Every structure is written in C-alpha cells, then in structure tokens.
Amino acid sequence: CIMREIVVPTRDRVDEKAQKIFDGLNAKLGKVPNIYAVTGYSSEALEDHMEQTNKVGKGSFSIKEKEAIRLAVSEANGCSYCVAAHTAIAQMNGFSDEDALSFRNLSSSHPKLFALTALAANIVESKGKPSQSNLDNSFDQGFGEKELVDLVAVILDVTFTNYIHGITKVPIDFPEVPSLN
C-alpha cells in the first residue's frame, strides 16, 4: 500500500472562493499559512473556519486568553503545527516564550490563565467530561456559564486545525518550538 501524500495546494489548485481568501491572507500576513492552504481544498470549510476563528469567544475572553487556550488545546491534541503557530501568535500579542510554554504544560502562575488552560486541556483529554475540581477552579476565577460555553467553542475551533494537521501532516511554516517530551 502506497501512502498518499496530501500536498499544500498552490493558489491555482483551489477554487475561486478559496483564491480570494488566499489573497486576503497574503495581504494581511504576507503568506498563506500551510494549514489554511490545505483547508482551502474546501473553500466552504476555510471560509467557515476563518469566520469562526475571528468571532469565537468574543465577549468572554481577551485575545491573550484565547491564545493561552489554543496553546493548551493544541498541546493536549499533540499538534506540533498549531503549537508552533500559536506560540508565534502569542508572542505577537505580548507573551514571552516562557508564558507560551507555561500554557502548554499547564503551569501558568496567573490564576485565571491557569484555570482556563487546565480546564481546556482537561476537556480535551476527558473527551468533554472535565473534573469537577477544574470546573470549580474556573468558577472560582470568575467564569460563568457563558464563558464555559465559549471555552468549548474556542476548543472546537482550534481542534479543527489540530485535526487537519494530524491528517495532512503539512509542513510547519512557523518557527518550530521544542516538544514537551
């Protein structure tokens, strides 16, 4: 059995709708990240994912909090691509390398960020059945029902790209970060 390689498509290998999205990404980022390019095989999935990423968690979490969640979830899902990408994005939003590492290994000294990352990772690892202590810790940090629902939405959003990378194994086009293992 020959393994089929899923290649990162060039602009001319996707439909017109995906090409327009690629053009927007190129204008904004100077490139089309490989994870978005491969998602562009389905312009509908790419469009939906990008819209979801832009609005998920608004009103509940800051950009920094969402990046902390995304790092914890990407680590829990074992996605080296998304860990690298969200480490870079976290740095662009004012986090240090040490901060990013603390979100991945659930050791943040900031109580609110620790509660968020620990609960997010626990939700992933328990397949949606987190421990009561993680839930209680989050509520103790001021999170309510809205934040809990929005947390699940952020988890699902980043899990999409975690799974896309797990399936496609596209090359990481962000600075690689060391594994925790």
Explain the overall architecture:
The chain is mainly alpha-helical and 181 residues long. It is 64% helix and 0% strand. The protein has helices at residues 16-29, 34-39, 43-55, 63-76, 80-92, 97-104, 111-125, 132-140, 145-168. The radius of gyration is 17 Å and the shape is globular.
Key attributes of the depicted protein:
9 helices; mainly alpha; 181 residues
Task: Tell me the strand percentage band.
Answer: under 5%
Low-confidence stretches: none
User: Distance N terminus to C terminus?
Assistant: 31 Å
Largest sheet: none
Radius of gyration: 17 Å
What series of H and E elements makes up the topology? HHHHHHHHH
Strands, count: 0
The number of distinct helices, counting runs of at least 4 residues, comes to 9
User: What is the global morphology?
Assistant: globular
Structural class: mainly alpha
Binned, the helix content reads 55-70%
Mean pLDDT: 96
